[in-house]
Amino acid sequence: MNRFKKIIFFVILLSWFLYLQADARAWWGGSSSWGWDAIGALIALLIYAIYEIRRRKMIEKAKKDLEKALSTDSTWNLEELKRVTENVFFKYQRAWSNKDLLPVKNLMTKSYFEKANKILANRLNKNNKLSFFKSYDSYKYKNILENIQIHDMTLMSVRDFPWKDWDMFAMEVSASMIDYTIDEETWKFIRSTLRRRKNESDKDYEARAKREAEPFKEYYIFIRYNWKWLLNNVKQQFSIVWDIIKLKESDLIKVLEKERASDDVNDDVFYN
Fold first, then answer.
1. What residue ranges define each of the domains in the chain, with the CATH number in brackets?
2. Element of type H or E holding 189
3. Which pLDDT tens digit goes with each residue over 82-130?
4. Residue 169: enclosing H or E segment and its boundaries?
5. How do strand 168-183 and strand 189-192 relate by DSSP bridges?
6. At what angle do helices 32-70 and 3-27 cross, to 10 degrees?
7. 109: exposed, middle or buried (C-beta count within 10 Å: 0-12, 13-18, 19+)?
8. The Cα angle at residue 125 between residues 239 and 183, in degrees rounded to 5
9. Global pTM?
């Protein structure tokens, strides 16, 4: 049994155990809160299992699609796709930290360049939590990104067309970095993406945020135009289980069994 099957087996086993425990507690008049917690854990585990199955199928589909594309077009080379992604990733992070995306404009589609500039302006120039007496956009921020490292890249999707233009691919980038924001005028610490520990003081949190790299995943979506790969979108997360979020546990179990028995997977989540 491979590692992936072991994970799924463990999730199903643990889910069934939690379900039985919740049922037993209710039967013996136990805490209803505990019962609901167990059911909530069961649902979360089932959704996670479905997510892992769909993700694995997506990766396998991308691998097959790449092999098919490579058979007729030598430019569909995995190492080259990773090189393109890595190059854009580091240049994009540096440009973002410098609050100037012009140096990477030629690496992006026009539409994404405009979108990225809006995201950058919204994140760095506005904060409505600091004071009720200053204007909404009176604070100018600088996003500090340091110790940026890529740990792994996984091809998630391939779209190959008979012509060279409009080919697309999505690459999952597993990376880590120190990421925090300061007031550019006073150099005062504003916030960090790092999760704050319980009862952690402001001083300790700031010190940790400035030295501790945080792991993250991003999805870089490229489109080929005039024989050149251009960044067309960056997603911090994607949902391949949105359609099942509100289902009850009995329905989730049916979906899980269906996913295990099927090879179908939809990678439109990257391009929508």
1. 1-72+243-272 (no CATH), 74-238 (3.10.450.240)
2. strand 189-192
3. 999 999 999 999 999 998 999 999 999 999 999 999 988 887 664 434 3
4. strand 168-183
5. antiparallel
6. 160
7. middle
8. 110
9. 0.79
